[in-house]
Structure formats: C-alpha cells, structure tokens
Description:
- The chain is of the alpha/beta class.
- The chain has 3 domains: 9-70, CATH 2.40.50.140; 96-124 and 271-437, Rossmann fold; 131-197 and 202-245, CATH 2.40.50.1070.
- 22% of the residues lie in helices and 28% in strands.
- It has 9 helices and 22 strands.
- It has helices at 91-108, 168-171, 174-182, 214-227, 276-288, 307-311, 324-336, 379-385, 397-409; strands at 9-14, 17-18, 24-28, 31-35, 43-48, 55-65, 116-117, 131-139, 144-148, 190-197, 202-208, 230-234, 242-245, 252-255, 260-263, 295-299, 316-321, 342-346, 365-368, 389-394, 414-421, 431-437.
- The protein has an 8-stranded mixed beta sheet, with helices on both faces. It has a 6-stranded mixed beta sheet with strand order 1-5-6-4-3-2, with no helix packed on it. A 6-stranded mixed beta sheet has the order 9-8-10-11-12-13.
- The mean pLDDT is 95.
Amino acid sequence: MRRKQKPLQExxxxxxSLTHDGKGVCRxxxxxIFVSGTLPGERVxxxxxxxxxKYDEGQLIEVIEASPDRIEPECQxxxxxxxxxxxxxxxxxxxxxxxxxxxxxxxxxxxxSASEILPPLTTEPWAYRRKARLGxxxxxxxxxxxxxxxxxxxxxxxxxxxxxxxxxxxGLRLTEFSDLIRGLSVYDKIAQIEVAITDDISAFVFxxxxxxxxxxxxxxxxxxxxxxxxxxxxxxxxxxxxxxxxENPRLFYRLDEYNVELDFEPTDFTQVxxxxxxxxxxxxxxxxxxxxxxxxxxxxxxxxxFTLPMARTAAQVTGVEGDAELIARARQNAQRxxxxxxxxxxxxxxxxxxxxxxxxxxYNRLLLDPPRSGAKEILPLIAKMDxxxxxxxxxxxxxxxxxxxxxVNEMGYTLEKAGVMDMFPHTAHVESIALFTKK
Length: 439
C-alpha cells in the first residue's frame, strides 16, 4: 500500500546562506528548506512537500526582495536545465561563495585553517567547457530527439537548443545533433554523446545501443566531413570506442610553457577547462618549488597532465595511477615529448599498496590529485614517507577538508596556502588547491 503524500505547503522566508551545491537555505519552524535559484538575504516565496526529518527540498515561486548581487541569467534555458546553478549570481560573487565553501569546510570538517588564502584562478566564464557527456533521448510525444543535460531535479532530459558554457563546437550543435540523430534508422537507440574538444579538432563519441546501418554511417561521415569534426561510435563499454571518421584522429592539448603535448582518447579523463588547466599546472609547480635535485611522487597522475611539466624541472618524477589505460597514455606522452626522467606505475590507491616497489624510493615532493572521494586510504603510507612539501589538487572541498584535518592534526603538517580555481563557472563545483609543509 502506497503511503499518502503530505500536502504541498507554501511559505515565505529570508534566505540565510547557500549550501555547498548552491541552494538557498530557508527555515520553516526551524527546519531547513533548500531552495534552488535563491541568494542570501533575499525574501522569497517557495513551496515544498514535507518528506524528510531534518530538511526538505523547496521550489522557488517568487523572489519578493532580490539581492543586489542577483543578475539576469545569460542562458535562455537556465532554471530548466540542471547543468548550472549559479547563473543568477555575478561571477565574482560566485567565486566568493566557492571560496567560502572551501574555507568553511576546512574549518568545520578538518578543524584547520590556511595561513594564506590564494587569489582565485579565473578565466572567461562562458563557452569554456571542452569535455562533457550529453544525454540523448527520443521523446515519442514530441517526435523529437533531445540532446543535452537533465532538467533540474529531474531524471528527464531538458529540451535545449544551445548551451552557453559548452565550447561553441558543441554548445551550438545541440539542434544539429538532434536533427542528425532523428535522420538515422536507430534514432531511438543513441544514448549519449561524449564531447572532447581540442584547439585542433572536435570529437564526438556516439553511444549506439544498436548496430548502425551502412546508410546511417554514411550520414554521420558526411556530417563529420562537412563540419571538420571527428565522430566515434561506442556500441558497448569504453573499450569499444572506435573512430568512424576520420580513420585515425589525433586528440591532444598543449602546455606551451613546458613544451609539452599530451595525447588522449575522447573518453579519457582530462580537465574540462583548458584555459584554467595550464594556469593550475603552473600554480601547482610554483607551490612545489621544484628544482633539478627534487624527486617527486605524484599520486593519481592520470595521463601526465602534471607529471610531464614537473619532469621538465625535477630530477625524477614517479607517477602512480589506478587506470592502466591512462598510465599507458602517460608513458606514450613521455616518449613523444622526449622525457626520460619519469617512471610510471599502475596501482589502485584505494586499496593496500604497502608492498609496492615505488614506495621504497626517497621523495622530497608529493603531488596529490585524487578523485572526488579524496586520498583517505593512502594517507597512512604518506605519513610514513615524511615528505616535507605536499601540494593537494582537489575537485571536492569536503574530502580535501577531511584529508587536511588528517595531514595537519595527525601527521604534523602545516596548511600553508589554499585557494579555489574556477574550473566550472556558473556551477556549484569547487576546484581547489592546497599546500602542506613539514619542517
């Protein structure tokens, strides 16, 4: 028997603050209600259905008294599309909120504070995103293929015509992709499009749940030729990604300051914002204070984004990564760039690696760039290595704060510097960097 839903309530309140994912915090009889699209200090009217004990999700009805920081969103789909959450807030204020998330997390989760707050790394906040995964869905009622991101707080795809944060090579093609897929015989069997855009080529991986006919393939090839792009097909898992046109596209990006080119495959992890990335690399190397005598250990090294630039200065760089394909790519990138002072290892850093050969070397620098779950599992081994200088690059301020608490309060490090990098403007995503030292 289904439980009867509680009735929808409407309330008016003043927004107290923002959550870590950009929702306004209102209160009704002391209970927190999280309302998207609101800003601190605003008086708003919202609706919600009581469902949880400590908090509920609300729906904005009206902004009664607007914040002076509120701006008109530049995207026509903002509010419907769930891809962005901060377009109603000025870019500088967005950064201030992200910095607050970082510092509050360090204080309340890690019980630490930084001696110095680094100025934010910023760049152009529009048309910046070069990696993305676009959903694709044929909607029978509309007789239309939708291409884009999910609706806010919904499993359904939003009906989008363009995306202002995607690089124009993708963001202005949503309608074209919709029409292109609708013209295929398997128009209802394309599940997603993986986007990978470089300065030299734009690549799109079509996830096809059914075999394409020869006519379908010719239509995709013709579109790729007309628009000078690369199209791949992916009939099953990631290992089935195969170029359709051209036969052997080369995807790579440059880090000019270090005379490095990094090749990658379209589904490999690379940073989405290639304007911020070189500046992030430069900042990490600056904080490490590398010279020709240093031996650097890099954990979660990926395909060499930090590894190869560090190798241009340090005596030796040892990189460790759990994805064997990325390590293979990193080795190829080192060889392509004539870099010989790197040794690269495959290891799952979320498991016990205490017997690994690379742990036996002496290191005086450490770079950490873990996934969202952080570096909790590897910290006990780091404690034994007693490395005097650690730079931690994070995509999740909560796990950075947790790990910072361990490094400072249990392992004797000092949190010297911390700051945010605006890798994802207009979203609540917080990319950050921190320097830890031990004398």
